[in-house]
Design goal:
With 185 residues, the chain is mainly α. 45% of the residues lie in helices and 5% in strands. The protein has a single domain, classed as hpI Integrase, Chain A, CATH 1.10.443.10. It has a three-stranded antiparallel beta sheet. A hairpin with a 4-residue loop joins strand 1 and strand 2. Helix 1 runs antiparallel to helix 2 and helix 7 crosses helix 8. The two termini are 31 Å apart.
């Protein structure tokens, strides 16, 4: 399911705390859930407006956009993580979203995000076929609708094969939807 921008906004407004920040970053940067959860504080370059994904699914490091609207919240998160510092661990090596419980991972467990999105969907009354991964699909589709090239989207998503990117950008809104007639310009 491809979410509209309005639906994305509804879901994000129904989320709070770290799950809201994680899902906002997934949508704003096109990250997979585990890529987002495995980010370290040093992976955010606020000056360049970039996020570096160091251990992605395809094993090829990539950079993607750091949304301007998330910069304050992410800088606050970095400050929070560094302020609760692990002694002896360099600040750039700390998890951006550390686990608050004892778990098998040092970063927040993905089930926390799954549950939060499920609750947000129930609260908003949106389709249950929506998943956390829908934010990544929406990122790609909304960029395509905004006129960005498919090759740019492919690079931001980290796909080797263009066919994979095309599958992410399926727009089910009819052939004329989102197209501005030349007469209307």
């Amino acid at each position: 399911m491809v979410l509209t921008t309005h639906q994305v906004r509804q879901i994000l407004e129904a989320l709070t705390g770290v799950p809201k920040l994680v899902c906002s970053l997934m949508y704003g940067s096109g990250l997979r859930l585990m890529e987002c959860l495995r980010l370290k504080t040093g992976d955010l370059d606020f000056d360049a407006g970039e996020v570096t994904i160091r251990d992605p699914k395809g094993k090829v490091e990539r950079k993607t956009v750091l949304p301007k609207t998330l910069r304050d919240a992410l800088q606050s998160q970095v400050w929070h993580v560094n302020g609760n510092g692990l002694l002896g661990v360099p600040q750039v090596s700390r998890w951006l979203f550390p686990s608050t419980r004892r778990s098998s991972t040092a970063f927040i467990h993905e089930t926390v995000i799954f549950r939060a999105v499920k609750d947000a969907l129930e609260l908003t009354g949106l389709d249950r076929n929506t998943t956390v991964h829908s934010f990544r699909h929406a990122f790609a589709t909304h960029l395509l609708e905004a006129g960005y090239g498919i090759r740019t989207i492919q690079l931001l998503l980290g796909h080797r094969d263009l066919a994979t990117t095309l599958a992410y950008t399926h727009v089910n809104r009819g052939p004329g939807a989102g197209v501005l007639s030349p007469l209307d310009r």
